[in-house]
Amino acid sequence: MRRRREAAVARVTIREVAARVGVSTATVSRALSGAKRVSPAVVEQVRQAAEELGYSANGIASALRRSRTDTVGMVVPSITNPFFTSLVEGVEHALQDSGRQLFLCSSRSDPALEAQRLRSLVARQVDGIVISPVHGTESTGAVSWAAGELPLVQVDRYVTGVESDWVGVDDDAALRLLLEHLAERGVRTAAFVSSELTSSSTELRVAGFQEHSARLGIGLAPGGMLLGEYSIEWGREAMQRLLAGPSLPDAVTCADDLIALGVLQTCAAGGVRVPDDLLVTGFDDIPFAALSDPPLTTVRQPQVEIAAEAVRLLADAERAGERPLSRLALQPSLVVRASTGG
C-alpha cells in the first residue's frame, strides 16, 4: 500500500517528457492534443516518450489553471444527413488545428432534445458552442439562454433575437443560380419540393424560389409547392403526388439533395426520363449527388469555409467583450450535371 502511495505522489510531469524528447513543454502539449503545428515525427517521439515514462496529462487541472477546457460543443439537427456530417467534419478539423476537441450532439430535429443538449454542454463547461438550430421559433429560448452563458455561433440555420454570430450560405443567391440555369434550359413551369417552413434556411429557399421564378417568368405548377421534410422518402412521396397530377412541370427544384434523390428514384420507377421528360435540381452537393442516376445538378455550399468561419467567429467571441456581431452569408456555386442536360 505504501509503495502505491509513493508511486502516485511521484507522478511523471510534462517537463520530464519534454526533456526526454529534447523539445519544449509547449510542443509536448500540442503534440498530445493533436495540433497540426507539430510534425508527425515529433508527435510520434512525444507519444513514445510519454508511454515509456507513464505520463498521463491531467486535463482537469490544466483546465482549472487556464479557466478553459479546450473543448467546443456542436449541436446539429441530424448526423445522418450528409450535409451536416460534412459540416461537423469541417468544424472538427478547424478546431484540431488549434489543439481543441469537439463534443458533438444531435438534436434529432427535436427542440426539446436540443435544449437538453445545450444544457448538458454548458454543464460540461465547454469553451463555446456551434449550433444549427432545429426550429425558427421553438429553438429561440434555449439558444438565447446558451448564448448568455457561453460564446455561441449559429451556423447554416439561425433563430432571430439571439445575441450571437451567424455564418451560412446565401440561400437567395443559390436559388437565383438554379432558376437562371433552368430558365436558360427553356423551363416555363416548375415545382418546388422542400421541408415545412420551420427553419430560416427553408424559409429563405422558398422565398428565393418564389422571387426568382416570378422574375424569370417560370410559373408554379398546379400543386407544385410541396412542403414536407429533408429526406429521400419525402422526395419519393412528393414526386408521386406530381405524377398523379394532370401534367408534369418542366422542372422540379428541390431544397436539398436528399429530396432530389428521392425524386429521381420515383421518376425512374415511374418511367419518367430525366432530363428528357423532366429536369431535376438539388441543393448542397452532398457526395451522393454526383453518383445518382442521372448525376444531379445542384448548388454547392462552401462547407469548409463555413466551418472555418464558424470556428474563427467563436474564437473572436471568446477573446472579445463587446463587439459588433457578424452575419456572414457565403456564396454558393452552381454544379451542372446530367439531371438538367449538362
From TrEMBL:
The keyword Cell cycle does not apply. It comes from the Bacteria. Keywords: DNA-binding, Transcription, Transcription regulation. CDD domains: HTH_LacI (cd01392), PBP1_LacI_sugar_binding-like (cd06267). SUPFAM superfamilies: lambda repressor-like DNA-binding domains, Periplasmic binding protein-like I. InterPro entries: HTH_LacI, LacI/GalR-like_sensor, Lambda_DNA-bd_dom_sf, Peripla_BP_I. PROSITE patterns: HTH_LACI_1, HTH_LACI_2. Residues 12-66 form the HTH lacI-type domain. GO terms for molecular function: DNA binding. This is LacI family DNA-binding transcriptional regulator. It comes from Pseudonocardia aurantiaca.
